[in-house]
Amino acid sequence: MPRIIAIDYGTKRTGIAVTDPLQIIASGLTTIPTDEVFDFLGKYFQEEEVEKIVVGEPLYPDGNPAQIAHLVVGFVRKLNKLFPALEVVMQDERNTSEAAKQIILQSGAGMKKRRDKSLVDKISAALILEDYMKSIGKF
How far apart are CA 16 and CA 3, in angstroms? Predict the structure, then answer.
């Protein structure tokens, strides 16, 4: 069974998470500079079978699009153009960054780890993926 990949898009860094091949577990994979995302994905898709890309949809708490929403829409368009065989879906990402920070704090991580924004992005991507999997009845 192919994996599902999730993306927490940011203007500087982008968090990436994936399911295992059986689509049971969502795990943070990496955080990469945003300008390297498409190269990274191209290589990843050559090595791993992926059926779907889930992109975090940035929304304010009231449900309105966040400031970077237009950038995410452009990102999704480019994903669709570069990888037409893959379905791209949006998933509400409200509160994932705050939840990721709480997870890191609860893990007992030291101050240095808690300040690592790339770790927050990777965990946020995993939370986006978990939320998506719950929404389709996989979790």
Answer: 13
